[in-house]
Amino acid sequence: MDPFLSATAAADLAPSFPWLSLIALLPAAGALLLPLLPGDGTDPRGPRTVAMTVLVVDLLLILYVFSQHFDGSSSSLQLVERVAWVPFLGLEWSLAADGLSAPLVVLSGLVTLLAAAASWNINRKTNLYFGLLLLQASAQSLVFLSQDFLLFFLAWELELVPVYLLIAIWGGSQRQYAATKFILYTATASLLILISGLALALGGDGFTLNLHELSERAYGGNFGLLCYLGFLVGFGVKLPIFPLHTWLPDAHGEANAPVSMLLAGVLLKMGGYALLRFNVQMLPEAHLVLAPALIVLGIVNIIYGALNAFAQDNVKRRIACSSVSHMGFVLLGIGAIDSLGISGAMLQMISHGLIAASMFFVTGVFYERTKTLSIPNMGGLAKVLPITFAFFLASSLASLALPGMSGFVSEITVFLGVTSNEGFTTGFRTITVVLAAIGLVLTPVYLLSMCRRVFFGPRIPALAVVGDMRPRELLIGLMLLVPTLAIGFWPRLAIDLYGASTTAVAENLASIG
Questions:
Q1: 3-state secondary structure of 265
Q2: How far apart, in whole angstroms, are the C-alpha atoms of residue 25 and residue 105?
Q3: What is the separation, in whole angstroms, between the first and last Cα of the chain?
Q4: Using CA atoms, how far apart are residues 344 and 415, in angstroms rounded to an integer?
Q5: What is the pLDDT of residue 463?
Q6: Residue 456, exposed/middle/buried by CB under 10 A (0-12, 13-18, 19+)?
Q7: Quick check: 447 and 322 in contact, CB under 8 A?
Q8: Would you tell me which of 205, 219, 266, 347 could form a disulfide with 224, CB atoms 3.0–4.6 Å apart?
Q9: Mean pLDDT in the chain?
Q10: From residue 257, how far is each of 262, 311, 365, 506 by CA, in Å?
């Protein structure tokens, strides 16, 4: 089954109302209201109220559209909107959703709303801060929904600007260094994405930027492999793939907790989504050739990220290295080729988005109380922050793939996808599983040791009296933890959204192989 909908069928299913455009543009429209608010930018109440209202409405709209107007049993593009925007460039305002994009749009809407709610105490340049969060929300949705390459690329570039400014203005003492490193890495990667995309657009019969039309062309030989490698490096920076990951610990270490929630919960998922959309769907022949290399890179990510986490004495940097390790499972699933592996990669993106956002949020909660992220400078917090400790421990258990949590389901699905693929030799599959299992063993060691050092051990006198989670913070934590548990006990909540699309992608690969 073709994972893309034919152009004629897409037109037939075009909705009478532009739901996806509304989802993508509503936050940006809200951002335009913020400069009109009175005040000197130190009172967060006005900007915060506007941003929260817009993001709540946007999330409710996302949930309504994908529950009432989206058919998860179909692998075709749905809710198609296609309008000529800049005809002489071939640029279209072309949006659509399928199983690869729908769950990530939902994840993006939820995490962005909770990041705004976690920004309650921002009291400097508040109009700009919440305006950047709203602009980021629009850019994220456009990345997942765009069906025109140039529109996708513009959205991909747009989302870099708010993140850069959010780190550079509201980050820690080394914020300028971290923000500059982030933009240098991602901007350089964007150049490779643009070159590879334009090469595909020019490489067939006639110029086109439409992703469906590009997917119908056959790009074989060295040309396809070069484009694949260009996309792999370009998207691999965002995923991130070792050794392109070094911007991530610095960015997390300097960004405030809400921005870290966005980085880990949404931005890293853009890299995985783009690999599926471009490398796997558009260049299946090259993917079949290079899939074993993706598995090797995934193994390196898993083990290197876990070992590097041990060396970190900063809580956020340790969690950032953990993200590098866990995103290795996404590479592993994509490289597995079969439907089970690709399904596991999708589920891992959703699961990690919830878990990592939860861990960074709770880290922000006790940072506001203790004013430190240094593990050696903390201890005994479980007695004064029992609720915070409970949430951090639950998030850590989810991250280490405890059964009953979403992390367990996603990682075991990836494992089964790799082992069930008979296209790989028995020796290759065995070595892959053994090495990946080493990462699984290391994860509870570095996470639980961090919990022990931060929340137990000798109490630091200066941290003896701090307040625990407030009701607002408790609600944010629950909105991340409850879906993690729900997917862990009933994975079909997520799989029913994307299952048909991942199956279609795998069938397309099988038909070529």
A1: helix
A2: 13
A3: 15
A4: 8
A5: 66
A6: middle
A7: yes
A8: 219
A9: 90
A10: 9, 21, 8, 37
**1: in domain:** no
Q: What is the DSSP string of 105-170?
A: HHHHHHHHHHHHHTTTT--SSHHHHHHHHHHHHHHHHHHHHB-BHHHHHHHHHHTHHHHHHHHHHH
Tokens linked to 116: 């705004």
In a domain, 392, yes or no: yes
Distance, CA of 233 to CA of 4 (rounded, Å): 24
Contact yes or no for 136/116 (Cβ under 8 A): no
From its phi and psi, is residue 41 left (phi > 0), alpha (psi between -120 and 50) or beta? left
Look up the pTM and report it: 0.93
Query: What value does the CA radius of gyration of the chain take, rounded to a whole number of Å?
Result: 22
Q: Which of 182, 172, 442, 468 is nearest to 303 (CA)?
A: 442
Within a domain: residue 140? yes
pLDDT at res. 14: 45
Query: What one-character-per-residue DSSP string does 329-375 give?
Result: HHHHHHHT-SHHHHHHHHHHHHHHHHHHHHHHHHHHHHHHHHS--BG
Is 180 within 8 Å of 132 (Cβ atoms)? no
Record the tokens describing residue 174, joined without a space.
């080394």
d(CA 428, CA 159): 38
Instruction: State the amino acid at position 209 in one-letter form.
Output: L
Closest C-alpha among 137, 138, 155 to residue 146: 155
User: What is the 8-class DSSP label of residue 451?
Assistant: H
> Distance (Å, rounded) from C-alpha 408 to C-alpha 342?
16
**DSSP bridge pairs for 402:** none
Domain count of the chain? 1
Residue 401 region by backbone torsions, left for phi larger than 0, else alpha for psi between -120 and 50, else beta: left
Tell me: pLDDT of 164 over 90.
yes
Both tokens of residue 56?
Answer: 């709540």
The residues, ordered by sequence, that sit 6+ positions from 481 with a Cβ below 8 Å of its Cβ are 358, 391, 394, 395, 398
3-state secondary structure of 17: coil
- Are the CB atoms for 450 and 306 separated by under 8 Å? no
Phi, psi of 83 (to 5 degrees): -135, 135
As a whole number of angstroms, the distance between CA 7 and CA 433 comes to: 41
More confident residue, 249 or 458: 249
Rounded Cα distance, 94 and 83, in Å: 6
Q: Please name every residue paired with 78 in a beta bridge, in sequence order, or none if there are none.
A: 97
Task: Determine whether 344 is exposed, middle or buried from the number of CB atoms within 10 Å of its CB (0-12, 13-18, 19+).
Answer: buried
Q: Which residues pair with 91 in a beta bridge?
A: 86
3 has pLDDT over 60: no
Find the mean pLDDT for residues 230-252. 93
Domain of residue 136: give its range.
7-512
- Tell me the per-residue pLDDT of 414-448, one tens digit each, with 9 for 90 and over: 989 988 887 788 888 889 889 998 988 899 999 99
2, part of any domain: no
